[in-house]
Amino acid sequence: MNPSTSLGPGEWARTIKPQNLGIANFLAFALLPLSGFATDIYLPSLPGMAADLQVSAVQVQFTITLFLISYGISQLFIGSFLDSYGRYSSGLVSLLVFTLSSILIAITNSIWMIYAMRVVQGITVGIVVAGKRAFFVDLYTGSKLKHYLGMFSIIWSTGPIIAPFVGGYLQTLYGWRANFWFLAVLGAALGIAEFFFSGETLPKRNSFQLKKVLGVYREILSHLPFVLGVTLLGLSYAMVMVCNMTAPFIIEHHLQFDAVTTGYCSLILGFAWMVGGFISKAVVHHGFFRKLFINIGLQALLIIAMMVAFRYVDNIYVLIAFAFGVHVGAGFTFNNYMTFSMTRFPQNAGVASGLTGGFTFLLVSAFSYGIISVLPAQDGNHLAISYGILSILVILVVALARRRTPVVH
């Protein structure tokens, strides 16, 4: 580790001062959940946004889909960009643009302006988060690097857990625009802290060689087990996103609760995702496909029970109890296949990481928006059917992956 390595004349002049390294590490971790905050903080406000802007539920839900698409696409190519132009300056500019876009969303009455700014936010957050993943690889090696990388999923999951909880109170007290003022203040504060305490960590600028990059992409995307693994990541997180996009309408319109209640429910379901990840870590040495089939089998049974239950009872407790179990299973599958996908190509870890994150979120946006377009946010039974569709796809893809990947270490 050498945070003060000279980058040479004409390169970036600002490197991290050794006395600021601890703060820079903290800031790097603080920026990882930014994607979760940008996606989830205004979930309790979706019904309020639709009413205030006089648009349909699907139109306001599309603001989330646009963020996910742009966030996913940006990660497909951002690794090469950051290796050529640096992490620090790219991150600072992105935080500035993110802050300005949040302000524009907060003051506009146009759904089209919101659409445009959500695309901008997806791209800028993709640059920031990808840069901070590379931050640790630049500075650390060996066991220390493994320690930091092992904390990524836990730190990242705090965003989807905390954000809607905060957003529920902001919606109740000040309305939906307060969520984006909050994001603007958060982006500005982190950007200022980055300016004073962080710095460039890339030791050498790499020239962008399109032919070489495309060759690596072709090699990775022709590897079927990797493609199936990323598909499972998308299907697993789509279960969570379908719930995130429909639950506010079910809870606030159908069940007649307020936005604060939606925030508490999102907090509980975010914790379920984290529980699934911890269980996955606890059984890491068990047979890969055996534990996956047990998990998705239990998840499928739970979804069937949810469909049956909503024929006889329809309340928030049943909704959250069943959704909690489904999200634990989704978190379990996601954590297993994230590790699987990220370790397939150690010689091209950066590109594999970008492709994994990029295609995952593109698939999440496609699956989630496609399902809610067909099954609108009406009641718990519609949510159960949505889960069921995704569960069937998960089972089919895992079965195919098992045939194509006979041994997983």
From TrEMBL:
Segment forming the signal sequence: none
Listed transmembrane segments: 21-38, 58-79, 91-113, 119-136, 148-166, 178-199, 220-240, 260-280, 292-310, 316-337, 349-372, 384-401
Domain Major facilitator superfamily (MFS) profile: 24-406
Keywords of this entry: Membrane, Transmembrane, Transmembrane helix, Transport
Pfam families: MFS_1
Subcellular location: Membrane
Main location: membrane
Bilayer topology annotation: Multi-pass membrane protein
InterPro entries the record matches: MFS (IPR011701), MFS_dom (IPR020846), MFS_trans_sf (IPR036259), Tet-R_TetA/multi-R_MdtG-like (IPR001958)
GO CC annotation: plasma membrane
Regions annotated as coiled coil: none
Keyword Plastid appears in the UniProt entry: no
GO terms of molecular function: sodium:proton antiporter activity
Single biological process term from Gene Ontology: xenobiotic detoxification by transmembrane export across the plasma membrane
Protein name in the entry: Multidrug resistance protein
Lineage of origin: Bacteria, Pseudomonadati, Bacteroidota, Chitinophagia, Chitinophagales
